[in-house]
């Protein structure tokens, strides 16, 4: 009998995903996530403008990022590498309409080196997801007339 480790894939190492549903339309969630203020929260990066495919930058913690794919109002895929990592991972952020006024925001990271890294990144994306929800709630309060 083969024991399969949690989060281990056959071909891409370890992976982790965190998703939560928030009371905001898909359009609003996407526009905020891809804005400089949104990216400041979930990527912890100061980007001067809306990120497009090919954009490269570093987070405040020195993580090297490159935007690989942007499918408008659907998903963004990044190469994501911490300074101490031997190789980059792939991060995908996806928005999924749960209803007209609710959106699931999913953070998925793959090509992680080991189970320890997977657990650390799970905690990271859980924390990010909470901050995103708090920021969306604050943004919603300030956007109302």
UniProtKB/TrEMBL annotation:
Cross-referenced InterPro entries: ASHA1/2-like_C, START-like_dom_sf
Organism: Paenibacillus antri
Lineage: Bacteria, Bacillati, Bacillota, Bacilli, Bacillales
Pfam families xref list: AHSA1
Name recorded for this polypeptide: SRPBCC domain-containing protein
Highest taxon in the source lineage: Bacteria
Domain Activator of Hsp90 ATPase homologue 1/2-like C-terminal: 24-128
Family to which this protein belongs: Belongs to the AHA1 family.
């Amino acid at each position: 009998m083969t024991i399969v480790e949690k989060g281990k894939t056959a071909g891409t190492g370890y992976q982790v995903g965190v998703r939560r549903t928030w009371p905001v339309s898909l359009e609003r969630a996407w526009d905020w996530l891809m804005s400089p203020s949104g990216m400041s929260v979930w990527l912890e990066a100061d980007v001067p403008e809306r990120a497009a495919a090919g954009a490269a930058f570093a987070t405040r913690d020195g993580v090297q990022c490159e935007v690989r794919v942007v499918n408008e109002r659907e998903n963004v895929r990044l190469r994501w590498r911490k300074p101490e990592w031997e190789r980059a991972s792939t991060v995908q952020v996806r928005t999924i309409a749960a209803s007209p006024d609710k959106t699931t925001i999913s953070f998925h990271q793959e090509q992680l080196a080991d189970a320890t890294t997977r657990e650390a990144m799970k905690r990271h994306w859980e924390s990010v997801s909470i901050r995103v929800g708090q920021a969306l709630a604050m943004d919603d309060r300030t956007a109302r007339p």
